[in-house]
Specification:
Length: about 240
């Protein structure tokens, strides 16, 4: 982790993030239904996950309204019934309803507020937590029972602006997600502006150190990362 030297900047940035996050939480608590619980697939302007991640898919399969689903199911079908998946920064209820039944043994969403009793799959859990806080990760380990996760998705969109403007903190979340990912697993992540530089460095690191075991593809402001057999256990501290 890079050295942090300007402590007042660090303090202000964390404080600003705290205030913005608490406001966002209040808005969610006031609402009578989830402000966002987007579907996996859908037509144009459906705000589906497919729309955000189709350009990170391998060429040939991306140009379809179900491209993301087809890609993930193709990759994980061998683990049908055993795979586990998680969304960071969202309840994940509609997202995981979009996959073929019984693909996942269980799924979860990590989000600020879970007060809605809407329709959700019986094997889906909503974890109230913050992606930069340790507590969320101990709750996730309890939920996963220590099993590595096969699908990780983060599409926080405008809420990425709530994160502190401190690249080392934000990149740390990305490292944690990588640690949680299984061999053969895949993650789709919307990139916060704070870690653009770090991810460019990460790309160079992968190209030179492990081009055969980690595959990464950028598309728009998002990326897909595949962790293959023999991939490094952890990502280096680049920021
Ligand atoms: C714009 S919504 C997107 C929700 C969902 N990903 C989707 O695409 O429908 C932003 C989400 O990020 C969550 N969020 C905001 N800050 C967060 C944080 N620090 N940790 C975890 N979730 C957070 C909010 O609770 C909300 O669910």
């Amino acid at each position: 982790m890079g050295e942090i030297t300007n402590f007042s900047e660090l303090y202000n940035s964390r404080n600003a993030s705290r205030v913005l996050t608490d406001d966002y939480r209040k808005q969610e608590l006031k609402a009578s239904r989830p402000l966002f619980d987007s579907p996996l697939s859908g037509g144009k302007n459906s705000y589906s996950f497919n729309e955000s991640f189709f350009s990170t898919l391998p060429e040939g399969i991306w140009n379809s309204i179900n491209g993301l689903q087809e890609y993930i199911e193709g990759l994980l079908m061998e683990r049908k019934g055993e795979a586990i998946g998680i969304e960071f920064g969202g309840p994940g209820c509609k997202l995981f309803q979009g996959f073929t039944k019984d693909l996942f043994k269980k799924t979860a969403g990590v989000t600020l507020v879970d007060k809605f009793a809407g329709e959700r799959l019986s094997n889906h859990t909503v974890i109230e937590g913050e992606i930069l806080k340790k507590k969320a990760y101990s709750d996730i380990l309890k939920w996963s029972n220590g099993q590595q996760i096969d699908l990780i998705i983060e599409r926080m969109d405008g809420a990425l602006g709530l994160l502190p403007n401190i690249p080392t903190f934000v990149y740390r979340a990305f490292q944690r997600w990588y640690d949680l990912l299984s061999e053969g697993g895949v993650m789709f992540v919307q990139i916060p502006r704070e870690v653009n530089e770090g991810l460019t460095q990460l790309h160079s690191y992968i190209e030179s150190e492990c081009p055969e075991t980690i595959k990464i593809k950028f598309g728009g402001s998002a990326l897909r990362l595949n962790k293959l057999a023999g991939a490094p256990m952890n990502l280096p501290n680049l920021l």
